[in-house]
Amino acid sequence: SRVLARASTREGVDAEGCLLLEFPSGSDVVDAELAFGFRSAEHQELLLIGSEGALRVPKPFTAWHGEALPLELLGEPGSAPELLPGAEADPYREMVVDFSRSVLAGRSPATSWEDAALTLGVLDAARRSLESGAWERP
User: Fold this and answer.
1) In the chain, how long is the greatest CA-to-CA distance?
2) Could you read off the pLDDT of 50-75 as tens digits, one per residue?
3) Distance separating alpha carbons of residues 28 and 131, to the nearest angstrom
């Protein structure tokens, strides 16, 4: 429902920054935080935090072919995470393969066109937020 973006640029390119996202969910508001940087050491993870625990996904965007990293189910503070098996996948390859197969078969890709349009709306709102310094709506 709203996006707030901050970034520093280098030669006109977003070099590092963050996004705060608000999603309406019934009577609750669900938040997401994203951070990126091209000038820092590579590190990526996806951390989903809920009311009863958390799930950590290592390298969710650039796991390499043949690499099956375990997911970590996080429980009470101080307890060891439960390791769940991860699937072997190269996310970028999977995206291109699915898109190619959908074009050849005349079907919709796994990610809908509507979802892609919503994602672009969020990116447009983030760009406007960079310019305005305020929360923007997609």
Assistant:
1) 51
2) 888 899 988 887 766 677 888 999 98
3) 29
Sheet holding 45-49, edge to edge: 45-49, 54-58, 71-74, 82-84
Which pLDDT score, from 0 to 100, does residue 60 have? 82
CB 128 within 8 A of CB 2: no
Containing 130, the helix (H) or strand (E) segment is helix 113-132
- Whole-number Å distance between alpha carbons of 98 and 46: 22
More confident residue, 16 or 77: 16
| Contact of 66 with 41, CB cutoff 8 Å | no
In angstroms, the Cα distances linking 70 to 44, 82, 122 are 14, 9, 30
